[in-house]
Q: What sequence folds into this?
């Protein structure tokens, strides 16, 4: 009943607005508000419209906090977007809820996607169909404060985990009361550390975070406990940092009070305004055997389930453009996110870039966690760490408890 | 209805051929104006409230059609230790927060009422936090509570040689730390209301008591407090509901680990928010809302009843 009334209103509104744009197709593109992303999209739309004069693209943006709710609500009112941006981790929910439709195979042949994109796009595949493609991808790296390194007489960023601890120790400074004035390494599970622990540390300690299809939690193991032990020891034993120092790891790094922090490509924009010191980017440290890993993620563009007929055609054309090498280059320049196509990303120029290089190298060995409820799964990791840091629970017990809690979240969602 | 009765009845013929009597037309006008807010409230308040009860018996993720699952949501909730932790937190805010804030507010109002020097200025100072945006204030306090050298409080403690307190990073201290902010934020309003109540007590009572030789303490106990009762009842109910619905301060002071560490500061409203808008488990969130609604109802009725009985 409610829906029917809403529909009537929507139809009436559509009649009024529809009358103005006879002939040309207008499609709506939705993404969340983030300055550089919106600017980049404006530029892309302008170029696209110049090439396709019969298609108009209207960009609609919402604050990130409301974004998912808006999509869901709009879909219920049959007023959803034609093309939309979504985090790869929402795919399960969006497919199950009928918010997005499979990409038409004539425009997006699977062999082509699999040959040209980084393997992490697999995370957009459900039941043999791709539900979206990214323009850009993100990975993690170690940010280091060159000024603090220089003052401590250290040449460059650590290559291995052991070196990481040693370097961090040398860089840590405390006042007379024993309070940190500079931390060697940030400890911030609520930031990107939970990804580091999950996809990098566990593997480096010889384990596996999940089963291959991410349906079973597999970190309740010696490796999982050892990884957590290593992580919590940064605060408890080595005393190179403390959770909550300067509120957030990235804030501490920005303020020049953290020598090293792990963060993603998306932080480049915010760190680029740092004026007090120079900073560098390095690949995440390897373990003693040289094993490296990384966590890659992305926002993909997908076609809304409401798009039909010529709107669907226009949506596919637009999405094809958003996934083109040209769009990726522009996105890299404006937003600073890495191209999702191998050949656009792995150029000699990009690989030699001191900033993009370390992130790009990681894409070849990166993993993409299949989240069912990212916030809840992150919370499990935060709580797991806090039990060790605040309540002195043993890492093994805490990991076991976390594994059970996360398995429940995954099971409930499936 | 009282409006209709209050108006003297006028002959219908006077209104120049109109078929409706003045009285009826007036009633129509009144109800016409009243209908708008009533309709508005029915659609945006009462209907969703009632609908929440229905939803609490369903499994709904906002995208699929709600599926009726009986009392499963309630069974899940009452069997979930996390829910009970949140439940305890909520009552900690209520049971500790309400009395402390009211005693503080009354004490300040009582003495402020006697201060003549810079009275308005001091009153404005107390009132300022109340008109400040809760989130802005929460962020300022969040930084106060940081470890040294960035946190003001810990830096001060360090300077006078005391040990650091892990305010927001400790499962013991986080809840009291946030509660202190919430109390401080609501204090201004309560002081103003208490002072209005104090001013409303006729001076003659005090004069009579003094002539009879009643001491200050006696005056407070026998005259001021009993006569302030309507004000106190109002503030108790108001503050209780405020603490039961606490959200802004907690959310803004713990955004990195909402309601943490380890859920030690999470109130019911934050749990509902996360269940609904982070996990999109609408049916379960509705069940939690029904529980909150019931608690609010019981607490309010109980307080009104207790306070009335002692009159």
A:
């Amino acid at each position: 009943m409610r829906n029917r009334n809403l529909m009537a209103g929507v139809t009436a509104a559509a009649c009024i607005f529809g009358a103005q744009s006879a002939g040309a197709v207008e499609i709506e593109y939705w993404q969340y508000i983030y300055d550089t992303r919106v600017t980049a999209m404006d530029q892309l739309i302008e170029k696209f419209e110049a090439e396709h004069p019969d298609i108009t693209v209207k960009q609609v943006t919402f604050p990130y906090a409301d974004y998912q709710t808006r999509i869901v609500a709009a879909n219920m009112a049959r007023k959803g977007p034609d093309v939309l941006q979504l985090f790869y981790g929402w795919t399960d929910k969006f497919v199950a809820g009928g918010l997005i439709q499979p990409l038409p195979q004539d425009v997006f042949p699977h062999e082509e996607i699999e040959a040209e994109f980084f393997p992490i796009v697999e995370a957009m595949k459900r039941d043999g169909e791709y539900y979206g493609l990214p323009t850009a991808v993100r990975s993690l790296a170690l940010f280091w404060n060159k000024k603090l390194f220089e003052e401590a007489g250290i040449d460059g960023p650590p290559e291995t985990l052991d070196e990481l601890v040693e370097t961090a120790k040398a860089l840590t400074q405390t006042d007379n009361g024993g309070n940190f004035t500079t931390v060697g390494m940030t400890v911030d599970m609520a930031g990107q550390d939970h990804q580091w622990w999950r996809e990098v540390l566990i593997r480096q300690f010889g384990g596996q975070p999940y089963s291959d299809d991410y349906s079973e939690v597999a970190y309740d193991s010696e490796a999982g406990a050892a990884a957590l032990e290593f992580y919590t020891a940064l605060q408890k034993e080595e005393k190179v940092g403390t959770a909550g120092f300067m509120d957030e790891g990235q804030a501490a790094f920005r303020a020049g009070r953290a020598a090293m922090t792990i963060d993603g490509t998306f932080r480049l924009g915010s760190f680029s305004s740092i004026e007090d010191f120079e900073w560098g980017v390095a690949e995440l440290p390897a373990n003693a055997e040289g094993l490296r890993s990384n966590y890659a993620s992305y926002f993909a563009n997908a076609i809304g389930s409401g798009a039909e007929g010529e709107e669907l055609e226009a949506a596919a054309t637009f999405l094809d453009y958003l996934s083109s090498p040209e769009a990726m280059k522009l996105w890299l320049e404006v937003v600073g996110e890495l191209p999702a196509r191998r050949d656009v990303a792995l150029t000699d120029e990009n690989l030699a870039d001191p900033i993009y290089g370390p992130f790009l190298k990681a894409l070849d060995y990166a993993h993409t966690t299949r989240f069912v409820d990212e916030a809840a799964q992150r919370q499990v990791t935060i709580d797991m760490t806090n039990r060790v840091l605040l309540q002195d629970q043993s890492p093994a017990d805490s990991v076991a408890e976390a594994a059970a809690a996360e398995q429940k979240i995954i099971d409930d969602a499936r | 209805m009282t409006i209709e009765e209050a108006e003297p009845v006028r002959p219908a013929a006077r209104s120049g051929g109109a078929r409706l009597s003045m009285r009826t037309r007036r009633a129509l006008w009144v109800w016409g104006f009243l209908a708008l807010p009533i309709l508005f409230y029915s659609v945006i308040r009462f209907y969703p409230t009632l609908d929440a009860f229905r939803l609490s018996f369903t499994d709904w993720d906002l995208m699929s059609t709600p599926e009726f699952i009986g009392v499963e949501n309630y069974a899940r909730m009452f069997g979930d230790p996390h829910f009970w932790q949140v439940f305890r937190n909520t009552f900690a805010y209520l049971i500790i927060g309400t009395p402390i804030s009211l005693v503080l507010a009354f004490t300040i109002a009582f003495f402020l009422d006697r201060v003549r020097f810079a009275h308005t200025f001091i009153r404005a100072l107390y009132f300022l936090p109340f008109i400040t945006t809760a989130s802005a204030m929460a962020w300022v306090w969040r930084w106060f509570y940081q470890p040294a050298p960035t946190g003001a409080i810990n830096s001060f403690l360090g300077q006078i040689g005391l040990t650091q307190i892990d305010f927001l990073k400790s499962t013991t201290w986080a809840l009291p730390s946030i509660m202190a902010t919430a109390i401080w934020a609501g204090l201004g309003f309560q002081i103003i209301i208490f002072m209005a109540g104090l001013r409303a007590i006729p001076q003659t009572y005090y004069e009579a008591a003094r002539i009879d030789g009643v001491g200050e303490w006696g005056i407070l106990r026998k005259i001021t407090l009993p006569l302030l009762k309507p004000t106190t009842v109002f503030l108790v109910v108001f503050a209780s509901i405020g603490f039961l619905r606490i959200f802004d301060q907690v959310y803004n002071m713990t955004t990195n680990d909402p309601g943490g560490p380890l859920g030690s500061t999470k109130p019911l409203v934050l749990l509902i928010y996360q269940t609904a808008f982070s996990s999109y488990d609408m049916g379960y969130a509705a069940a939690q809302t029904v529980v909150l609604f019931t608690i609010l109802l019981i607490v309010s009725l109980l307080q009104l009843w207790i306070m009335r009985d002692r009159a």
Observations:
- Chain A touches chain B at residues 68-69, 72-73, 75-76, 93, 96-99, 175, 177, 179-181, 188-191, 242-248, 373, 375-376, 379, 382-383, 386-387, 390-391 (CB under 8 Å).
